[in-house]
Specification:
The protein is α/β, with parallel strands linked by helices. It contains nine helices and ten strands.
Length: 276
């Protein structure tokens, strides 16, 4: 699903990523660990080009999305992102936060189809009978799009036990509730992969479990995920592969049983001795 090839990223001449190569297949749960400043979050943000790579390629579903000529917004629709600090819109209710992206993208597609049909209507008026083109089927309205998005959002909120918070504002929620809403907001777009940037590091310890439980459920359902985290127990239990990053490179990559029981890289051995 994602092929990262010789990915490099520099900020003001300082090389943060120094040539990352990794393949992420459908259904993988890849957990990225490492010390602070090792490049983990930069790597994650380069995967969906929130940070433009300095060089290298990020092949997502066959397209190099690091190519500046590619419309990245089209591909981001299939790549969810969950942030450390939730990034919910505080001026919108919980359900409005979840509905925002699906309604916007579907209305864009609807407007595009209507514009094309209007253009075809003019073109067909002057074209010979055998050259006329069929209009794009338009079987919905903006009102129907909003209705469907609201139904989907309520279904997702029910899944995480927060349907009673649909019309509440994010400021009234606990940290764990905000992060669960942020996760189902990503799910509302039916992504192929979800990227998690330290999703529990801003939470009180008692709220971490409810977020990790939701992520475990997604893993059980086969969702492809790339997760930057310090939760070693979660990595050991859920990951299909664990990557150790340090100084802008991947120094070790292995299944969790091998990664934690028999680390090969000396820097990883030192790191695990301090965090386990």
């Amino acid at each position: 699903m994602i092929d990262v090839i010789d990915l490099k990223k520099s900020f003001d001449g300082v090389e943060v990523l120094k040539g990352i190569n990794v393949t992420i297949n459908k259904g993988d749960i890849v957990v990225v660990i490492g010390p602070s400043g090792s490049g983990k979050s930069t790597f994650l943000r380069c995967l969906n080009c929130m940070e433009d790579p300095t060089s290298g390629s990020v092949i997502f579903n066959g397209v190099d999305i690091a190519d500046m000529s590619v419309d990245i917004n089209i591909h981001r629709r299939h790549m969810g992102m969950v942030f450390q600090h939730f990034n919910l819109f505080n001026n919108k209710t919980v359900i409005e936060n979840i509905m925002l992206a699906p309604v916007y993208t579907r209305c864009q597609e609807l407007n595009k189809a209507r514009r094309r049909n209007a253009w075809l209507g003019v073109k067909n008026r002057f074209a010979p009978a055998d050259k006329k083109e069929e209009p794009v089927p338009v079987a919905t309205t903006k009102a129907e799009i909003k209705k469907e998005a609201r139904e989907d959002a309520l279904r997702l909120l029910k899944r995480i036990g927060l349907e009673d918070k649909a019309d509440a504002y994010p400021s009234t929620l606990s940290g764990g509730q905000k992060q669960r809403v942020a996760i189902v907001r990503s799910l509302a777009m039916n992504p192929d992969v979800i990227l998690f940037d330290e999703p529990t590091s801003a939470l009180d310890p008692e709220m971490v479990g409810e977020v990790l439980d939701l992520m475990k459920a997604l893993a059980d359902e086969g969702m492809t995920m790339v997760i930057v985290t310090h939760e070693m127990g979660f990595a050991r239990e859920v990951a299909t592969r664990v990557l150790f990053m340090d100084e802008g490179v991947i120094k070790e990559s292995a299944p969790p049983e091998e990664f934690f029981a028999h680390p090969k890289n000396p820097r990883l051995q030192e790191f695990l001795s301090k965090v386990l």
